[in-house]
Write a structure and sequence with these properties.
The structure is a homotetramer of 268-residue chains.
Chain A (H helix, E strand, L loop, with lengths): L8 E5 L7 H11 L3 E5 L2 H6 L2 H7 L3 E2 L7 H15 L3 E6 L5 H5 L8 H24 L3 E11 L13 H23 L2 E7 L5 H4 L4 H11 L7 H12 L10 E4 L10 H4 L4
Parallel strand pairs in A: 1-2, 1-4, 2-3, 4-5, 5-6, 6-7
Helix pairs in contact in A: 1-10, 4-6, 6-7
């Protein structure tokens, strides 16, 4: 490894189990010399095995519901105490559609569920940055990354209201990224990742078929969780200091494909 | 006029006074032979003079709070009774940020206000299409248009949380547009309009300076409310039957400018 | 019909036979009250039956090789004489890849053919506007449209070097559109059309399979040549005066689809 | 430094003097453990001081006119001999508009100059990849990067025909990137860099004013040549293996700004 994050301090949201992108990112950040705090919602912590990761990466766990400003304030305050410094990098890897879980179609949702999913998946990113910004908790040239999906730009029918949530999330990255850049020299970007067989990914209806389709469409194939972690490390490192407000596709080329030869074979 | 909408029936949301884009669209739709219902929130109806427009265009007014599915169900049912037919076109011209009204900055909002503004400005579009879709209230090749602003793609600091709301709105257009197209041959698009001195537009901080900037940046100058009405008519007409899921910039060219000579003069 | 182009004068490039989009556009422009000149390269005129269209639409034919500035100067001068006025609308519907014709792959072209195809398909649009601009041949609020294809944004392997030519063409629309808007209030746009079974379209390898794929992907199905003509009429009309520098997708929604249910069926 | 490119072999086009992005990239690649060949056109080599860089980075210089397939074939063959291996990374940093040099306006160019500039600035990238692909000269997971500018998407009047050339260049990256990815697992991307005071950059009319404008518009300010080198290193490294067909903005956020407070001050 390369000591790319040597001396850097961070907060990583959303690791559930060893399939999570946040989990792989934590492992890679540790290898690259970073120290960080792990966080997730209490329910998610109970469901997964975050303490295994914490042990492996010498990290402490601070539970926080990312829809609660109070929880986030506690998280940020506690993280700075534990890390003994301001924060250099943050990963937001949080998303959940209640409508998807309950089997509601996009055209007939429960709007209470829509609102809850939006709060968890999108507004939580604003709340996180709000707390970091108000507390002046980020170091200059710090890097904030949220994970997203291309359904924010193009229609994937089974992605349901998560498409709209991701569009809102990406907009927050630009909107808040402006103020964070202007005032504190912090960069904010989203990484738009291939379909990935995480807990969240496989919860999308028809994941296997869709993943196979994306694999055939992408000239380099789907990007794995580990590859996404690598890319995220590059975005946390000092190599990318002037990249901000961007939505970065990490998808083996899928996003700029109209059709591949491999997909066309099915239509000939 | 050209009888472009002869025989077409519609619902027009959001006309407040004679400066409103929805007002101009209603006038133009009337000239082009359409019949329609006018709607707005009860409070907005009290504030404006919608009955003047109703008289002028032989339209009935049905008050409806677009955040209320019940109100929307009543509106759609009543509209079909009045018009004696299914609906051919719908204009959604609704937007309001409580944070802007209250003077909250983007980096320090009240999240209750954020949620209220999102519900009014963005989710209302989903609710409207939800009711139209569930009630099979649209004719084949009908056209649904929502007005939006380029802050959904790029940062305009004073646009505040309306930027994120518009990103969500545009995503709804794509997401719901897919199902509406697939199932009922209805098209759904958004029109991204120049800064316009409507009641809503002038409520944005620094509107005058910003409007002057946009005027100087755009090779054809800013688009007016009347010109936006004309463009909307084209999107309701049969000339544009295969345009769907699009966000259409109507802005004198602003959206594809990096810088104009007129703007550069200020920096030389 | 609606007299949408009543009194307007135009030049229409690229009609070959009754399948051509330019042919349909000429028929529709005639129905809407326009008068115009038809033009194409001498070889294309010999290959098709343009005189049938000329008769039907009361138009004169002026042969011109659109890669020749001299031919274009003659065309524009002669057109203004015939039409007795400046020009209100121009359709550029020209494209041809010599590498495709000769069966060269994208990865092993003849660069002489690449250059020839670029000159015919892309630079010809600059030359056309160059002549119109230098001769001040366009009326204020005139409209110039070129046809393009989404291969300019995303990869369609069989589209070969036409993808790069269309990217260049679309860039010309923006670049020249700025000057034409600023100096003469003329708008310039491209329409990005579904795969269409014209002479040029069916010349692309694997057209049938690809067209079937696009049909399944698009919520409203592929747009036809006639529908494209209708859309082009709307762009020539006064309804769209402030739309400029845009690339407008006319494709039944294809451009904003990630995947449709109908396509996914093949992968499940 | 981090040994990010340890063991990797490359070819770097376009270093002229110590202000060149290619120069900085060579220095950084050397620091990160890469070995490489430097190349430029014979005339450019005479104009600059490439031998200083060659000495500093233990690199050999192979002159090549990038518009000549023969020269490129010699370059690639010779590079593999010198490096004793296939190629892992390539930087294309070449661009020149003869019309700009001669003072021709965009609306009145010499088309011979337009063609020459297109060949040098855009087609040279196709020719380079053509030779690498045909000779199977790239290692799997190799990385090819070309530098570009946002004028490919949006209008910057003084950028002249380089805007169209960059649009063509970016299209080549996608088109060839598909085949290079599918067949050889090689990724191809473009980096869209802030205005940079290199020899080429300062040749654009009004560079100083424009650079000041971009600085004010970008929340993180303009990206420097050294920062671009760092970003390019990240794209050559194994951290970004699944990023392909992308145009990556490296510009302090400029590309996603509508307007900044600092720019608005001039309009209030």
């Amino acid at each position: 490894m390369h000591n790319l994050l040597k001396g850097k301090k961070g907060i990583i949201f959303g690791a559930l189990n060893e399939h999570s992108i946040a989990w792989k990112t934590a492992e890679r950040a540790h290898e690259e010399g970073a120290v960080f705090v792990l966080t997730n919602a209490p329910a998610a912590i109970r469901m997964g095995n975050l303490e295994v990761l914490a042990k492996k990466t010498n990290a402490q766990i601070i539970p926080a519901d990312a829809t609660s400003v109070e929880d986030l304030e506690h998280l940020v305050k506690k993280s700075m105490e534990i890390l003994g410094a301001k924060i250099d990098f943050v990963l937001h890897s949080i998303g959940m559609s209640v409508n998807v879980r309950k089997g509601n179609s996009y055209t007939d949702p429960s709007y209470d569920f829509t609102t809850k999913g939006w709060d968890v998946s999108a507004l939580s990113f604003h709340k996180t940055m709000h707390v970091l910004y108000q507390k002046k908790a980020m170091n200059e040239w710090g890097s904030i990354v949220a994970l997203t999906y291309m359904a924010a730009q193009r229609v994937f029918p089974d992605y349901n209201d998560m498409a709209d949530n991701k569009a809102y999330l990406e907009s927050i990255a630009r909107s808040f990224g402006y103020f964070f850049g202007r005032d504190h020299k912090v960069r904010v970007n989203t990484i738009s990742q291939s379909p990935t067989p995480t807990k969240a990914g496989t919860g999308v209806k028809g994941f296997d078929g869709f993943s196979a389709y994306a694999e055939k469409m992408s000239p380099l194939g789907n990007a794995t969780a580990l590859e996404c972690a690598d890319y995220t490390i590059s975005m946390f490192s000092d190599l990318t200091k002037k990249v901000t407000l961007q939505n970065l596709f990490h998808d083996g080329g899928f996003s700029n494909m109209g059709v591949s030869d491999a997909v066309m074979e099915k239509f000939e």
